[in-house]
């Protein structure tokens, strides 16, 4: 009988982490930024059907980079958790912090289990507050840890370089148009220091807009609204963009 091959626990966990990081790095990056009236999600996504950003609950949004089937399973689980908790207790009891804890437990359990491979995903859970001080942004890497972010966060293939770029340029109180332009500029940067152009039709953009009168604050920015915001002198809030688009219809 042959002796089983031994791998130290530290080496096994390091190998699993490297495997997950390489899988995440193959995906396109995305950024989440605070602006004056809420939180904006921006990513390069040529697909109109497979979304990187989604609504979880009234004031909570979800963003993910990595393998689509894996983070879609997590998104669906988060929606079920939020619906059940809101129905059983109260809608105000559904929070980004609670949802992040649920995701952290799931990712941590999968990452430490020797029976299955780690998920190749990195998540962002964001909640818009009544004021900018009440906004919450949590980043969840593949191992299930929780990072409380402020201002801006980037995940995906080129996240470190993009995060550094955003940290130097992001400011509190930016308009939606300013935040969107900064996000696109950061995503346009290549690892070698060059820049490329990302056309509007390849962008996926969504916001959690605290100024919306509806209880649900999540909204996708597409078509003429997105083009207007990308242009100089365009509408500065999602609400204004929505109203302008409705006026033209």
Features of the shown structure:
alpha+beta; disordered C terminus; 249 residues; 10 strands; five-stranded antiparallel β-sheet
Q: What does this molecule look like?
A:
This protein is an alpha+beta fold and 249 residues long. Helix content is 39%, strand content 22%. Strand 9 and strand 10 form a beta hairpin. Helix 4 (159-169) packs antiparallel against helix 5 (176-187) and helix 6 packs across helix 7 (238-248). It comes from Streptomyces siamensis. Its main location: cytoplasm.
Number of distinct beta strands: 10
Number of helical segments with 4 or more residues: 7
Q: Mean of residue pLDDT?
A: 88
Can you summarize the main beta sheet?
A: 5 strands, antiparallel
The proportion of residues forming helix, as a percent range, comes to 25-40%
Query: Low-confidence runs (pLDDT<50, min 5 residues)?
Result: 232-238, 243-249
Radius of gyration: 19 Å
For this structure, the quaternary state is: single chain
Task: Please list the strands of the largest sheet in the order they lie side by side.
Answer: 8-1-2-9-10
Structural class: alpha+beta
Q: Between the first and last Cα atoms, what is the distance in angstroms?
A: 76 Å
N-to-C SSE string, H for helix and E for strand: HEEEEHHEEEEHHEEHH
Relative strand content: 15-25%
Shape type: globular
In summary, what is this structure?
The chain has 249 residues and is of the alpha+beta class.
SSE blueprint:
Layout: H1 9-25, E1 30-35, E2 38-44, E3 53-57, E4 60-66, H2 68-88, H3 96-112, E5 121-127, E6 136-140, E7 147-149, E8 152-155, H4 159-169, H5 176-187, E9 203-209, E10 218-221, H6 223-230, H7 238-248
Family: Belongs to the peptidase T1A family.
Function: Component of the proteasome core, a large protease complex with broad specificity involved in protein degradation.
Keywords: Cytoplasm, Proteasome
